[in-house]
Amino acid sequence: MLPKLNYIQKNKLLLPLLGIGLLLSWFLAFSKTFDAIMLHRKLNAESAQKNDISFNPVYVQRKLEALDRILKGYLVGEDWNDLLWMRGSEIAARQNVGIEYSATKISTETDSTTLGKAQSLKFYGNFVQLVKLIDTLERSSKIGKISALQFNAPKPDLLNEQAGKNVLRLDFKGLSTPKSVN
Description:
By secondary structure, the protein is α+β, with helices and mostly antiparallel strands. The protein has helices spanning 7-51, 57-74, 80-94, 127-139, and strands at residues 75-76, 98-101, 116-125, 145-152, 166-176.
């Protein structure tokens, strides 16, 4: 039948066949590809929203709990200096380490925004004993947290009990509980 048609009839038949071919290709391939692209965009948007931690309440709750645990580690009471000295002495005696304590001077210009407290302790002993002491003090509660430490090598020229021993200086920081303002 196609060979019996002339060019004008073939040209008239070409346009409907092209339309049918485009519809067939749309239904068989392009519509599925278009749907897949739309689904990909939708899933990317949902994934970005789930992974955005500012909108994730589970992450925010976990973060608040972790921050509360850290803050509780720094909270100290009014008798912090005494408690730090007693616990430090107790642990130092168990580790067979010497201790030196010097009280910090309280500033006369304190105000209601000052929450932090600081205290330093010096310990004398061999290296292994001092490392065990650091570990034990770090795990202790209600004495604040170690904010700095400094090791010094043994000095042979000292004439006292510290001769030939390593010196460890530990700085502790604590946060006092805020007082309610009336």
